[in-house]
Amino acid sequence: MKGYDKYAFEPFAVTVDLAVLTIRAGRLQVLLVERGQEPYAGRWALPGGFVLPDESAETAARRELAEETGLADVSGLHLEQLRTYSEPDRDPRMRVVSVAYTALLPDAPEPRGGGDAARARWLPYDGAGPLAFDHDRILADAHDRIGAKLEYTCLATAFCPPEFTLGELQLVYETVWGTELDRPNFRRKVLATSGFVEAVPGAARLTGGRGKPAALYRAGPATALHPPLLRPSREGRSS
Amino acid sequence: MKGYDKYAFEPFAVTVDLAVLTIRAGRLQVLLVERGQEPYAGRWALPGGFVLPDESAETAARRELAEETGLADVSGLHLEQLRTYSEPDRDPRMRVVSVAYTALLPDAPEPRGGGDAARARWLPYDGAGPLAFDHDRILADAHDRIGAKLEYTCLATAFCPPEFTLGELQLVYETVWGTELDRPNFRRKVLATSGFVEAVPGAARLTGGRGKPAALYRAGPATALHPPLLRPSREGRSS
DNA sequence: CTTTTTATAGTCCTACTGACCATTAAGAAG
DNA sequence: CTTCTTAATGGTCAGTAGGACTATAAAAAG
Fold it and tell me: In this protein, which residues make up the domain named Nudix hydrolase (chains A, B) (predicted)?
């Protein structure tokens, strides 16, 4: 940051890449676009695009998110900067520095190719195959980040519609972590954390479920979980 | 990432900014350089510089770290990407996208102006005053990140020399968090976390301390803390 | 030798959590 | 209508982690 004039600097292209995650059919799914040209023609890639001259990366990410998902209103969606990927050879054509973002969606409308994406669709996170560029790495980083943030933040509600049952919330944890959780314990923990969820007064979800109808909850005002909701047995416990 | 040729894109300058933190005299301190020219002439700023054409941002950050600190070997230091700042008006001269990194140092040699930094020195984190550009924000983000990572990673050892006492390790937590911790409890917790620290067989620190000499420890192979070491009373506890 | 200082060891009690079991309320099957 | 199944909800119980606190050990300072 000192003495620009004394430096020669290369101009870089700056892009954003989006790891858009949702839960469909009990599986973690990713929004991907099919590349129509070289390099990596025919391969799936994360949606993204250039940051325009008067945009911040955040603004560009939200614009791309709207274009790729076709959603009218993306202002309420969770969008979070992941990290920046800047290896000199990550794009064979030119020097591209990419700021990656992760977005979480509750429901999952099939994307209409709103932007200029050749073909966009949801694919399961497992078996999304080798992606173009370094997008496998970006996607894995996004998964790691989300899995970790579920432990100590209220992020899980970002995967849920405005009103949801505790079973749906638990499914978020189980799907992202790939583990099963004890339902009564999960329930006790979530309800004991003030501000995580709020009961919707007289509502219950009656939509075709077979068992007892579940009570509905809304996301509460809290953002952090204290104490955290740790995933079971990541490595050897202490003591 | 699709159809570069169909897009016009603006070239951006890409820089790295470094929030280099250490603990000196029981206080959290930051490495800052004094700006010699407009804008923000005379103000303190985070060290940093342009990413060169054949470098990744990580490589550039490590190069700048070596230049600014004057340390011969920075390969062992903890260097971690923080996030990227890309507001269009963050530098009044031109469009600059900056990838911010946080580095942690154990001891703190006074920086010799190795690079072209007009004047570089350690300043206390509190009272580092308003910095140039958006560097106050970057520095605050770095502090938040480090404070959070102390809870669930073994990062604290990055602030310590190769061999350290548990008292020194506790001082890291207390300094970054700005809280006091109970010494026996901290000790019990750290020693119960396998892989956090390893005892150095027959060593004790005798350097002028007044009380009982403390045993020495090394950083262990673990990187994560399970269960985490939560800082006291951030907000209202649950239940 | 006594005091001070710091490290280390141990105790007690509460809260959180994992592993269970029981009950309730719906639909499905007979 | 009764019974079975399914899922939500309510509860128990023991093990454990962690906060508060006391006690002992080993050095320097007086």
Answer: 11-153
Residues 6+ apart with CB under 8 A from B162: B106, B218, B219
CA dihedral A227, A228, A232, A234 (to 10 degrees): -120
pLDDT digits (tens, 9 = 90+) for B177-229: 999 999 999 999 999 999 999 999 876 766 667 888 999 999 999 999 988 99
Mean pLDDT confidence for A165-189: 97
Task: Establish whether domains A6-150 and A154-235 are of one fold.
Answer: no
| B15 contacts chain A (CB < 8 A) | yes
Name which of A182, A187, A151 is nearest A169 in CA terms.
A187
Distance from residue A200 (CA) to nucleotide D1 (C1'), in Å?
A: 35
| pLDDT for B13 | 94
Q: Please, which residues 56-95 of chain B have a Cβ atom closer than 8 Å to chain A?
A: 56-58, 81, 83-84, 86-88, 93-95
Q: Which of A14-18, A126-130, A175-179, B230-234 has the lowest mean pLDDT?
A: B230-234
- Rounded to whole angstroms, how far apart are CA atoms A126 and A142? 13
Cα four-point dihedral sign B159, B161, B163, B165 = negative
Straight-line distance from CA B110 to C1' D19, in Å? 39
Contact A97 B95 (CB under 8 A): no
pLDDT of B40 > 90? The answer is yes
CA of A85 to C1' of C9 (A): 49
Length of chain A: 239
For residue A90, the one-letter residue type is R
Residue B54 with chain A: CB contacts under 8 Å: 88
pLDDT in tens, B156-174: 999 999 999 999 999 999 9
Q: Would you kindly state where each structural domain of chain B is located, as residue ranges?
A: 6-150, 154-235
For the domain with range A6-150, which CATH number is right: 1.10.443.10, 3.90.79.10, 3.50.50.60, 2.60.200.20?
A: 3.90.79.10
- The CATH code that applies to domain B154-235 is 1.10.10.10
CB contact under 8 A, A192 and B97: no
pLDDT at A2 over 50: no
* Protein-contacted bases of chain C (C-beta within 7 A): 4-11, 15-22, 24-28
pTM of the model: 0.92
Nearest to A120 by CA among A36, A27, A24: A36
Distance from CA of A47 to the nearest CA of B (A): 7
